[in-house]
Each structure stands twice: as structure tokens, then as C-alpha cells.
């Protein structure tokens, strides 16, 4: 529930501290990664049902809007959902998707609702982290993908590059707020990102259609 909806109420303080110390707290705060996983899960389901792509995109937009309200309209989830919605709309109207403008539009919408949220930790971490991936990560990943042909090695390197790029931009914020930083983030993210993708997608299906497989997921 924490990983899908961002509700950490039932987690112990000790467990939260462990996530924080290992630079994995972002797994518990719903953001772009979870939204991407949810879109992947929905897309898999709709393809199995043989739903037309344009209808699928419209349904995804509706689900994302509902998901924003379901998770309490937190800034990080609004950013991720709005960027996904803009991407889907650009496909529907056959226009090129610009990730930088999309990021700016999402921030503008959040600040129009509450300008003071610019000082909140969730906004700073969400936007600076994603900015790091755009500025440093995307270019590096593109160059690496040209050289590396092995898909598994590509996938591993892409995770490492994205993690490092995001962490470089959010290190100053984390250090200023918490007074500590962890250098184990590369290894922890490398292990947790593939696993969290599987858990989030299975968890989403359980929320949509409850099945007696909680033991397996655990």
C-alpha cells in the first residue's frame, strides 16, 4: 500500500529510518517510478483485452486523474501524473512530446494551486531528482546505449546512470535537511528498482481485483 498509494501510516518508524538510511525512501513516496509501473500494468491488461490504442490512452488519462485524487494530490504524484497525461495527449493529437516543457507545466499547475508548496521537501526532491535525470542522465544513457549492445547490461547501466544523475541533484537538499547522505544508493537502487516494478504491478492488480495471493506477494 505504501509503494502503490504512498500511505506509510502502518509502517514502523524503524522501517522508515532503514529506508531513509539506504536512500530508498523514494520507494515509499509515490512518484514517477510508481506511475510508470502503473501505466505498464494497465497497458498490459488493456492489451490482453485487445482494446484499441486510442481508447486505451483515454482510459489511462482517466485512471491517472483518479489516481491523483486517490493518493491525496501530493506534489510528486501530481508532477508524475500530469507529465504522463501530457505525453498521452501528445500521442492522441499527434504532436511531439517535450519533456522539459511538460515538467514546467506540471510545476506551474502545482504552484497555481499553492505557491508556498515550492518550499516543501517532496517538491524539491521530486523536481530536482527528475531534473538530474533530464540534464545528466538522458544524454549519458543515449551515449551508453549506442555503445552497449547487450540488453541486460544496458538495463543495469541505465538504472545506475539514472540513480547517480538524480542523486547528484538531490544530495545537497538531503544533506541540508537530514544532515546525512548515503553512498550505497547505486547498489540499493540496482536491487530494488526491478523488484519494486514487479511488486507495484502485482499490487495494482490486487487492488483492482482482490485475489488470495497475498502470501505470494509477501
Q: Give the mean pLDDT.
A: 77
Distance between the termini: 12 Å
Order of helices and strands: HHHHHHHHHH
What's the total count of β strands?
A: 0
How does the helix and strand content classify structurally? mainly alpha
Biggest sheet details: none
The shape is globular
How large is the radius of gyration? 18 Å
Count of helices?
Answer: 10
Roughly what percent helix? over 70%
Low-confidence stretches: none
Strand percentage lies at under 5%
Would you kindly provide a written description of the structure presented here, covering whatever features stand out?
This protein has 218 residues and is mainly α. The chain has helices at 2-5, 13-21, 32-48, 53-70, 75-92, 99-113, 121-147, 151-178, 185-208, 214-217. Helix 3 packs across helix 5 (75-92), helix 3 (32-48) packs across helix 9 and helix 7 (121-147) runs antiparallel to helix 8. The longest helix has 28 residues, at 151-178. The model has no long low-confidence stretch (mean pLDDT 77).
Features:
218 residues; mainly alpha
Secondary structure layout:
Elements: H1 2-5, H2 13-21, H3 32-48, H4 53-70, H5 75-92, H6 99-113, H7 121-147, H8 151-178, H9 185-208, H10 214-217
Helix pairs in contact: 3-4, 3-5, 3-9, 4-5, 5-6, 7-8, 8-9
Write a short abstract of this structure.
75% of the residues lie in helices and 0% in strands.
Amino acid at each position: 500500500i505504501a509503494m502503490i498509494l504512498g500511505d506509510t501510516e502502518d509502517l514502523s518508524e524503524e522501517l522508515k529510518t532503514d529506508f531513509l538510511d539506504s536512500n530508498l525512501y523514494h520507494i515509499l513516496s509515490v512518484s514517477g517510478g510508481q506511475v510508470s509501473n502503473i501505466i505498464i500494468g494497465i497497458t498490459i491488461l488493456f492489451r490482453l483485452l485487445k482494446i484499441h490504442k486510442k481508447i486505451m490512452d483515454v482510459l489511462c488519462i482517466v485512471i491517472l486523474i483518479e489516481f491523483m485524487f486517490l493518493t491525496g494530490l501530493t506534489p510528486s504524484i501530481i508532477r508524475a501524473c500530469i507529465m504522463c497525461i501530457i505525453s498521452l495527449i501528445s500521442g492522441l493529437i499527434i504532436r511531439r512530446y517535450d519533456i522539459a516543457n511538460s515538467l514546467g507545466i506540471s510545476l506551474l499547475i502545482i504552484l497555481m494551486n499553492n505557491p508556498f508548496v515550492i518550499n516543501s521537501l517532496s517538491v524539491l526532491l521530486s523536481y530536482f531528482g527528475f531534473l538530474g535525470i533530464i540534464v545528466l542522465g538522458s544524454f549519458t544513457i543515449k551515449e551508453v546505449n549506442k555503445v552497449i549492445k547487450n540488453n541486460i547490461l544496458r538495463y543495469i547501466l541505465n538504472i545506475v546512470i539514472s540513480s547517480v544523475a538524480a542523486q547528484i541533484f538531490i544530495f545537497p537538499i538531503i544533506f541540508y535537511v537530514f544532515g546525512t547522505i548515503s553512498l550505497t544508493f547505486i547498489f540499493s537502487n540496482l536491487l530494488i528498482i526491478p523488484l519494486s516494478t514487479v511488486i507495484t504491478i502485482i499490487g495494482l492488480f490486487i487492488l483492482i481485483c482482490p485475489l488470495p495471493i497475498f502470501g505470494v506477494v509477501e
